[in-house]
Design goal:
CATH topology of the largest domain: Immunoglobulin-like
Shape: elongated
Structural class: alpha+beta
Number of strands: 7
CATH architecture of the largest domain: Sandwich
Order of helices and strands: HEEEEEEE
Distance between the termini: 98 Å
Amino acid sequence: MKGSAFIVVIFLICCAVAVAGCTSSQTSSSGSTAGTSSTTPAPSLTTSPTDVMPSNIAVTVTVGEKDYLGKIPVTFEGGAGQGNVNKISVVLTRVDGSTETESLGSDKGDIVNLDGTRGSGSLSGQDDRVQVWVTMNNGQTYEVADVLREYRSRSGSGT
C-alpha cells in the first residue's frame, strides 16, 4: 500500500513538472514574439549630445537643411585635424525607420547628398535624423553632428 502511494505521488510530481514546463515554454514563446514586434520600430529619431573634439584635431562637418526634394547636403568644412581624418561616416535615419550610410571625403568642401523623406502622404513634415561620425588616424571616433531635418515644402516659400 505504501509502495502504490509512493508511485502515485511520484506520478503527480512528474505531471506537475510536465505542466509547469509547458506553461513556461509558452510564456517564453509569447515573450519572444513581443520582443520581435517591438524591435521593428527600433530606429530612434531622438538626437543625443555630440562629442567635443580636442582643439588640435577638431574638424567641422555641416548638415544642411532638407530641400523640397528631400535632399540633405552634408559638407566637410575642414579644420585643424583635417590631415588626421581616417574616415567620415554619415548615417541618415528616415521617418519610416530605414537607414542610409554614406562616406564623406576629408577634403575641404567635399559633399554628400542624402535622400531624406520627401514628405508624401502621412510622412509630410516629418523629421529625418542625420548623424556624422569622424574616425581619426589614431582610431578614436567622434560623433560631431546629430541633428533632425524637417521636410520643407515649396508652397510655403513663395510668399
